[in-house]
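Bench notes, afternoon.
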Amino acid sequence: MNKLGVIGGLGPMATAYFYQLVVQMTDAATDQEHIETIIYSRPSTPDRTKFILGKSNEDPMPFLLDAGRKLKRQGANVIAIPCITAHYFQKRLEKTLGTRVIHAIEETGKYLKANGITVVGIMATDGTVESRLFQTILEKYGIACVIPSEKNQAKVMHIIYDDVKSGRPVEMDLFEEVSDKLFAQGAQTVLLGCTELSLIKRDYQIGKGFLDVMEVLARQAVIACGKLKEEYNNLITE
């Protein structure tokens, strides 16, 4: 079995939930059948969105690379990053490390195509949306992307930073305003494209038609390193 390395702390609660998902998704009857996992929580990593948007000169890449090298030295041969915005650095990181770094967005494209989805709405950070991380990859799979208006994108950022990352109750009225508008604009599925939004799915009833990109990442980590429970082949909420 492959050994899973996790570059975590981006943020910490999302990392804890990611590991929970990996354990839940693994088809294991005993402790010994679970995936050997090394988690390096590095919350000091600079803010990814601010760097991508040119609002900060603090480059997250050296932090991600240092964490990846330490995981590799400890035997990790598959790496996952439970931070979607950090996938902006995925190609450079994988090439420099010489180790597989699971690309959550690429895997999301494959999953959507396999399930016949052709139009998706994206709820993610400004850094993810403005760098076109999802749009560029999903378009390769023939999937059109709908993004929030400037006003609604500000609501998404408020939910991510002022609610979830700050440990405050989620303003679900704002979440519903954004997602309802994306569905109204033709989205068949709305992507929870930030790991903080994954925590909303964990803790609240969000309804039908959502796909949590962190669940896609956890599913692929289990496929790469262990055995997946069959029920986790269906990730879009019903």
